[in-house]
Write a structure and sequence with these properties.
The N terminus is likely disordered. Strand 38 and strand 39 form a beta hairpin. Helix 2 packs across helix 7 and helix 11 runs antiparallel to helix 12. The protein is globular and about 105 Å long. The strands form seven sheets. Strands 11, 12, 13, 14, 15, 16, 17, 18 and 19 form a nine-stranded mixed β-sheet that branches. Strands 35-34-38-39-32-33-37-36 form an eight-stranded mixed β-sheet, with no helix packed on it. By secondary structure, it is an alpha+beta fold.
Length: 973
């Protein structure tokens, strides 16, 4: 169908829509006694009564000031929604809208259905209904900009909207009347639970939040990390830079953590979260997935950001600034307009950069290795564009900047010149004006409707539309927005009418069909199409049961089978490519790659020399590949030396690399820091679970903390990877997979096969505050009444959470017979274990603390046995890792010995420190200072008769004198 024909059909459809959808304002069939016909909202109330959205009481009173409940509102939406096909029962409506993630309070908690909602909540629900994921301030501005509200005072500020005031019948009649007047009232919805992801698509006008930077002093230029006026320093507790000195190589990174209190000195609640803009003069701010971000969210009292060093050939000092934005909380007002600063230093250094890969055909599901991809950079934003509709010009791509794809886009907008003058002009990037060059789109967020798509699909959609363009030059329209982390979003809108009419206008089904129409035949698929197929499959896996039924009916189910076949095809292509890259004659191996990097971060691609690589006791010498080397399979890129080792160590191990002398004389100066230096890298290969020794019919909920504070304890998202393996290993009858931060989100429900088809925790990112009880609360509503199945909840968190629902959750878990197992990750100083211990103890579960990734694996292995075999759960993870910390230090004539053990291992009776010497061994028993801390201090004179070696053993014994664990350390001065 051509776009000219589409335009005619669209116009006819629009005329029909006006006839059917525009509110017909007639005199109410019955007089409304308590609303005057002269009232400004009489028309809206009359319309609501006539359309049976609301009724009058027996005295013909409308009661406009009576509060509206969550249940009443969901039914009003259903009655007006042109996409709603079901009966007007509240449970049916809630279930329907849950697929669209509308943030009704009663979706998962029945008790909330009878509770009144606020005006601010209505704004969020309506924005989500229209496809925008907004927090309250942005949702209120969205109502203003669409003329659904004029505010009570006419000022159109957040405060004047009265967002915390309960929504009344008069309010909702007016809002919905205006909404229907604006056009087609049909749900678009969200693809995930509401979390404010589209906030940056709404610009808040100056003064909208009522803040005024003139109320505050300008930040002072202090030389320390604490910057700003005294009252800001009272709120700012500390700024900690984990690693203040970084190598300037675009790889090295550090975590910067800011600790805060409210402006009056009160602690900030764990369920509170604020947004901070983070800037760096030289470096890049990223999230844990490696994507560049501009804003981060706090988790209770802390806010943190990951800083990646730039490539530099000279040393530099960088300032990392945190600035509170979009604040609505008076308690944090003193931080508005202030920048909290920390310092990071970058220096160029030569490197032997070690990466590794593991191949084991018996563990094919695992993706072991640490070949770190570069961070995903920002695409430059079109500076003067407003977030709305933009034109895209042919061709796509317009041109290449190196390997970077560029396109030309334009919009009528206001442009401010160098003198501050504002002009309304048509601005085109990539047009004739060299001041506005073409922009990149590969690393933007690319979407069709509101579903993420690949670069290939984005180009195919646009080029087909450009081919049908009737303008000269050819152009088409797309939507432009800015994501919450400051990335441009380019969204292609519009499912073909012919497709939409055959699939009941269900967006995700129509999107799958239209995107598949842009894919080549199955036999012509290549690895280039891998990402495209997986993006389509992601939409497919998130279809509701009803949506799948509709897709099954389309073309007799042919397309549904085609989606599955395409996925199998590209996965087979990927596996073939992986197999081709493996060396012949090696059934399993650890591949170690050592790259020689010059100061500034660039590989040395013509180095003539070798490197010694040592792994698992085996030493090999490998030559660096050069840019003039003969092309050899499986050797690596120029600047890299590769060695294959037959052994695989699951868990923790080390690789050592040393340049072999003499150093290539051409590089003797710039590589002098590597001469005779052995570089060591700790590596980790993900272990696999042992075969299940028991089987049991189970229902299990998995609640994983993805609040901002988890960046510090699990920067690689190992908990998400391991939890997916855990789900697959347990094979529960019913799985409830939940991600929790400020809010709880259900990522999947059902059988193991069903939930594993979804992304689950792969795409989860740390954000916002912590409320693990919100996740547990939802999980407890999802278990069946089957008394024959064992029921459990597994929680992974750092324990820093709101506790408002704890008593309720514990009582409900006891009532249902659900055991809760809790797991904390990280150092003891990073976690709050009291809540997690109480939660597990009172429900008959167990609490575990995992120091690192290996211990987390061991915890899950113990949980498999505890759940499936119903064995008593011991919180002692692994005796080999009993010592959490051990230290012997010599200072001012005193020898101080200390040990901290895993507090979950209760069978430790004593700990001895053993010194080895040529005169014989000497032992001291440490004094027990607490349940898991042992210490002893001795004068140096005590040891004067012994010639003590540097290595010292700490030995833990049980009550019968048996050795439980031993750790060897060295004396520190």
């Amino acid at each position: 169908m051509t776009y000219v024909k589409k335009a005619l059909l669209t116009m006819l459809s629009f005329m029909l829509l006006l006839m059917t959808a525009t509110p017909v304002v007639t005199q109410a069939a019955t007089t409304i006694r308590d609303v005057s016909t002269n009232s400004s909202n009489y028309k809206a109330i009359s319309w609501a009564v006539d359309n049976e959205l609301m009724t009058l009481n027996n005295a013909n009173n409308f009661l406009p000031n009576e509060q509206v409940t969550d249940r009443e509102l969901v039914l009003m939406f259903a009655k007006l929604d042109r996409n709603y096909p079901l009966s007007y029962m509240d449970s049916v409506a809630y279930n329907f809208y849950s697929d669209f993630y509308l943030p009704f309070n009663g979706t998962h908690v029945n008790a909330n259905r009878s509770k009144a909602i606020t005006r601010g909540q209505f704004a969020q629900i309506y924005a989500a209904f229209k496809g925008l994921d907004l927090d309250e301030p942005q949702a209120v501005q969205y109502l203003y900009s669409n003329n659904l509200s004029t505010s009570s005072s006419g000022k159109k500020t957040f405060a004047s909207f009265n967002p915390s005031t309960k929504l009344t019948r008069g309010d909702v009649a007016t809002f919905l009347y205006r909404a229907v007047q604006n056009g087609n009232f049909a749900v678009q919805g969200l693809t995930r639970s509401a979390a404010g992801r589209d906030n940056d698509s709404i610009t808040l006008p100056p003064g909208f939040m009522g803040s005024n930077s003139a109320d505050f002093e300008e930040p002072k230029d202090n030389s320390n990390d604490f910057t700003g006026p005294d009252y800001v320093n009272n709120a700012l507790q500390s700024i900690v830079v984990e690693k203040p000195d970084l190598i300037a190589n675009e790889v090295d990174s550090t975590l910067v953590t800011v600790s805060l209190k409210a402006c009056n000195g009160d602690p900030i609640a764990d369920d509170k979260s604020y947004t901070f803009r983070v800037t760096s003069t030289y470096g890049m701010i990223i999230d844990t997935s490696g994507e560049a971000v501009r804003t981060v969210q706090s988790d209770g009292s802390t806010v943190s950001a990951i800083v990646v060093a730039p490539k530099l050939t000279k040393s530099a000092r960088d300032t990392i600034s945190f600035e509170l934005v979009n604040n609505t909380d008076p308690a944090m007002k003193c931080l508005v307009g202030q920048k909290l600063k920390a310092e990071v230093r970058y220096s160029p250094q030569p490197e032997l950069r070690i990466d590794y890969q593991v191949y084991d055909p018996t563990n094919t599901d695992d993706d072991n290795g640490n070949v770190t991809p570069p961070y995903i950079p920002y695409e430059k934003l079109p500076e003067f564009f407003t977030q709305n509709i933009i034109d895209v010009y042919s061709p796509i791509p317009l041109k290449y900047d190196g390997d970077k794809k560029l396109f030309s886009i334009g919009q009528q907008t206001n442009v401010t010149d160098a003198l501050g003058n504002v002009q309304n002009v048509y601005l085109r990037y990539g047009g004739s004006d060299p001041r506005y060059p073409a922009l990149g789109y590969e690393n933007a967020i690319l979407q069709f409707e509101n579903y993420n798509i690949s670069v290939y699909l984005f180009e195919e959609l646009l080029n087909r539309r450009l081919d049908n363009s009737v303008t000269s030059p050819a152009k088409t329209e797309i939507m432009y927005m800015i994501s919450e982390d400051g990335r441009p979003i380019y969204r292609v809108q519009g499912i073909d009418d012919e497709i939409a009419s055959q699939v009941e206008n269900i967006n995700p089904v129509g999107a799958i069909i239209q995107l598949m129409n842009h894919m080549p035949e199955e036999k012509k698929l290549t690895l280039e199409h891998y990402d495209s197929v997986m993006k389509i499959y992601s939409i497919f896996t998130n279809l509701s049961n009803y949506d799948r039924t509709v897709l099954l009916k389309y073309q007799g189910g042919k397309l549904l089978g085609q989606v599955e076949a395409y996925k199998k095809r590209v996965e087979a292509l990927k596996e073939s490519a992986d197999a081709a890259s493996r060396p012949s004659g090696k059934d399993r191996y650890t591949k170690v790659m050592v790259t020689l990097v010059r100061p500034g971060g660039e590989p040395v691609t013509d180095y003539q020399g070798t490197v010694k690589i040592k792994y698992d006791g085996v030493e090999k010498t490998a030559s660096f590949i050069t840019n003039t080397s003969d092309p050899l399979n499986n050797t690596g890129s120029p600047g890299t030396a590769v060695a294959y080792f037959d052994s695989i160590i699951y868990g923790k191990s080390k690789v050592e690399a040393t340049l072999v002398n003499p150093i290539d004389p051409r590089y003797a100066t710039i590589l002098k820091g590597l001469k005779d230096k052995t570089v060591t890298k700790d590596i980790f290969t993900n272990p696999y679970f042992s075969k299940n020794s028991c089987s049991l019919a189970t229902e299990i909920a998995y609640v994983v903390d993805y609040s901002s504070s988890m960046k510090a304890v699990d920067p690689t998202n190992y908990r998400g990877k391991k939890m997916i393996e855990f789900i697959n290993q347990l094979k529960a009858k019913n799985n409830i997979v939940i991600e929790t931060n400020t809010k709880a989100t259900i990522l999947g429900e059902g059988t193991t096969d069903t939930v594993l088809k979804k992304d689950l925790y792969k795409a989860s990112k740390e954000k916002g505050a912590t409320d693990i009880f919100a996740g547990i609360d939802i999980a407890l509503t999802k278990f069946s009444n089957d008394t024959k199945t064992a029921k459990a909840i597994v929680v992974v968190s750092d324990g820093k959470t709101s506790k408002s629902k704890m008593t309720k959750v514990i009582n409900e878990a006891k009532k249902q017979g659900v055991k809760i197992y809790t797991v904390s990750m990280g150092k003891k100083s990073q976690i709050s274990d009291a809540t997690l211990m109480q939660l597990s103890t009172e429900t008959g579960g167990a609490y575990y603390h995992a120091l690192d990734n290996l211990q987390l694996h061991q915890v899950f292995q113990k949980l498999i046995d505890a759940i499936l075999c119903k064995t008593p759960a011991s919180s002692c993870i692994n005796p080999d890792d009993l010592f959490e910390d051990a230290n012997v230090s010599l200072r001012k004539g005193y020898l101080t010995m200390s040990a901290r053990i895993d507090g979950n291992c209760p069978n430790v009776a004593k700990i001895n420190v053993r010194y080895k010497s040529i005169s014989g061994d000497v032992q001291f028993e440490l004094l027990k200072r607490s349940d898991h801390v042992f210490m002893l201090t001795k004068t140096v004179q005590t040891m004067q008769d012994f010639k003590v070696n540097n290595e010292i053993d700490l030995i833990a014994y049980d009550k019968d004198g048996n050795i439980i664990s031993m750790k060897t350390i060295s004396i520190t001065n």
